[in-house]
Specification:
The chain is α/β, with parallel strands linked by helices. It is built from 15 helices and 12 strands. It binds glutamine.
Amino acid sequence: MQSVIPDYLAEALGDVESDTSGEPADYIPELATADPELLGAVFATVDGEVYGAGDIDTEFTIQSISKPFVYALALTDRGFDPVLAKVGVEPSGEAFNRISLESDTGRPFNPMINAGAITTHSLAGPAGMDPQERVERVVRGLSAFAGRGLRVDERVCVSEMEHAHRNLAIAYMLRGYDILIEDPRVVVEGYTRQCSVLVTARDLAMMAATLAHRGVNPLSGERVVSEPVVRQVLSVMSTCGMYDAAGDWATQVGIPAKSGVAGGLIGALPGQIGIATFSPRLDPHGNSVRGVSLFERFSSDMGLHVMEVPAAARATLRSNHVVGSGPDAVRVLQLQGGIGFAGAERVVREAVTTAPTETRVALDLTMVYVVDDVARRMLLEVVRRLTLDGHQVYLVDPDAIMPDPDPGDGGRVTVVSEVGQGVVPPREAAPRRGRPEEGGGVPGS
Ligand code: GLN
């Protein structure tokens, strides 16, 4: 069988193909020469699967899509406080190249507009790094996000530099406020090289997937940046990534995103996928027209909005039933899925409201694939309190989803690999499946 996803992507491209509105960017003359018909879309999953349709291996310059990644590098190289002291995290609601800074501090509002991005470029690498080495650090960092070696398009770089009057004006203002502490022209040259790095839609999807995958590149397995850095970057992308269209985007698409004036657009959906589209015609905000339509469609077709409420919490408790009878009876709370705070709360509540009368209580994790840190602590506290209430507590955990369970002070737990093992005789072991929230009853009796 062939995967259905490339067919879906091809169909989505077909639907937006006839939209020829907008124009390729022309304030950078070299970008105006792009073939406006180019069109591609890629999904990259956090485990490294890539699905694409259309022009996904055509190179174009990354432009502003470099901004979140270089922000990540600056946070990594300098730490949060020094970066936040120079660049804010407030949406400006203004165009990307607006010459505006916070009136009191002179700080750029955020790292996604040019003023902020020029500043974050200057903060990549250790303090005092030679500007040329800093550019190399940036290109190497972007390459690590993509999982392959990237290079600069010299023609686009020269073309932009010849017309970089606005970015120079911004940089000189930043110098005036001591936000930049070096020659503004040198910083703008470095920033322009950063924007001229060549990528394909495939690369961009992988870069976005690295953010979606907590900072680890799904293909190379390399940890590029830490989880706190990823969280910071995704937050800023979701509030500021689409400039003065950020509010529309947040409500209609709801995926942390970043656009570039060469026609690229990325979205990173935490824990799920990285998405990239490429189409050079831009709307008045400087965002790709067909890219925005594609993202709107992806989001609504597949429920990708980050504010979409997950079903997981409600479904965590698969069943609550008793296995065996008399003194052998075991109360089994069977859990399923991925368990975070809300799922663990459901288990806590069940343990409190059911107040098991059986001496033996088992938490069955056989159908659980992950327990996050807070859920782990909450479940172990449930175990501890059940022990203190006089119960014998078992953790049915054949795949060691919760390794080394230590319920702490006064708690005790026995780990078994099935309900039958050491808990009840095997013939009574199999809990009935498929009926959620099933109460009472002794299977097989
Ligand atoms: N290099 C471009 C600039 O500074 C990037 C802008 C963008 O992609 N929005 O103008």
